[in-house]
Amino acid sequence: MLFSCLVDADFLATEAFMNPDQAALRPSTAADIFPQALQLLEDKIASFGPPESKDKVASARAIVFNDCTQAASSSPGVFTLTVPTGGGKTLSSLNFALRHALTHRKRRIIYVVPFTSIIEQNAAVFRKLLASLGENTIIEHHSNLSPEQENAQTISSRLATENWDAPIIITTAVQFYESLFAAKTSRSRKLNNIANSVVILDEAQCLPVHYLKPCLEVLEELSTRYQTTTVLCTATQPAVAKSNDFPIGFPQSTEIIQDTKALFDNLSRVDVIYRGTLSDQTIASELAASTQALCIVNTRKHARALFENLPSSEENFHLSTLMCPQHRLQVLNTVRQRLSKDLPVRLISTQLIEAGVDIDFPLVYRSMAGLDSIAQAAGRCNREGNLSAKGKTHVFHSEHPASERYFAQTANVGHEILDLHQNDPLSTEAVQTYFNKYYHQQKSRWDSKDILGDFKYTCNKDLPFLFNYRTAAEKFQFIENQQIAVVIPWTDEIKQLIDQQLRPSSVKIHRQLLRTLQRYTVQIYENEFRINHHQFESIRDGQFHILICPETHYAKDFGLNLTDEGPNSKTLVCE
Prior knowledge:
Layout (H helix, E strand, L loop, with lengths): L1 H17 L1 H5 L5 H19 L7 H16 L6 E5 L6 H16 L4 E5 L2 H14 L8 E4 L13 H5 L8 E5 H8 L4 H4 L9 E5 L9 H14 L3 E6 L19 E2 L4 H7 L3 E8 L2 H9 L3 E5 L3 H10 L6 E4 L5 H16 L4 E5 L13 E5 L3 H8 L12 E7 L10 H13 L7 H13 L14 E3 L7 E3 L1 H7 L7 E5 L4 H11 L8 H7 L3 E5 H6 L4 E4 L4 E4 L2 H4 E2 L3 E2 L15
Parallel strand pairs: 1-6, 1-7, 2-4, 2-5, 3-4, 5-6, 8-13, 9-11, 9-12, 10-11, 12-13
Antiparallel strand pairs: 14-15, 16-17, 18-19, 20-21
Helix pairs in contact: 3-5, 4-5, 6-14, 12-13, 16-17
């Protein structure tokens, strides 16, 4: 934390001297923004009017919002916000965060989410709500696009590194946790801005078990010593309270919702149906026969295979992380429009859609996974409670088990819970049982890389701290296989931006440029990049990699497509 203060102050002082125009663009302080933001939020909620007595969803959302209002005055610490999917967590958590920040003089609000798809949606919601406060009120930081090499050739690149100085930050778990264990100046400079903040861990159940102990310990450290309030916000609350069976849990935490069981019972809108093993052909046939349906599977390869099994139609859509964020957002907007107009629409997606993406299908299919993933998929079914009967979520085993070995452990526990809780597999009791089995019984994996072993205290008064920062940083990799961000010239707007601001070395790199480019990036593994490096133009001393021929290697339905140029890829030939 001391290192972060020093580095950030050094960068800011250099920026003020070298680039005063850029320094002048830094956002207003939270103290100026939060009262206005809270008023805008209250006006938004008031515009909905009182919920009708028959509208269970609206009534439940009102309860959640009110509970967040009451809990906001509580003393800082660790909180849980356990709300069923569709229960209005996004605005309600913002309500708690703003009120808590104002009451306890917190400096900023940081949303930490597992997937970039959630960032896109939450940022859009917040920006629309807080548009009158200026574009610098909210920062999205969700890729490794920022030039973070310690040997960067230009001062401007280093100054452009994100330091989270805005009132509201929306970032990924990768950025958040890896920054907390980082050894680089560029990543460490943001740590001082986490202190005395409200941190909302959206979809908190996504913590990987092999990093569970270091993640929980660093959250406890921030809460205990750096005045950070942490909120674990999810529909499937992980069982992370300290106990004899789980000594690494939080000693104290406060649930914001006053009666979680009643809330879940009132918002029960979906029946979960276990179907056994289904072939791709069976799934595709059932989807094609349905007017509106969503299918979520575990791998990009499976999602693409199912999509290609559907009859060719403009009513069918596909989502994966090989599509840049702006592309995914366009697809989601099109799907939502068709749903709202009762038009036929079928969507096949990887799990990126199942956490935090506001979408409502009458019928959902989910490949077998952990109970938290099944619950999140069910949350895309009858989300608004508009069906006369309950929605249907079909859970099935894929016919490709060999390609899904990575998901086998969570899927096995998920299948066990479906058998144990057949009447209500989405109940709070079922979720508690799931995490007891999945988290609590895997003690040997809580810190499988012994990251905390790199932070030792000694009896030596001259050197009491034996901390191996660099070793810990090398070990702590949320995504085990290193990935590279590549820029996709997908629209005329981004092509012009690349030509005018990125390629000319005379133009300084600035934060707004990086924030815009993030919406047009795709992450690929290093080995994929090495094999296909000739398809990219690397500029700025190799800091940015631009896809040379998007007409050939970026498909309308599938996104980045470096190796498959077959007849079904729906790409054009690059002249």
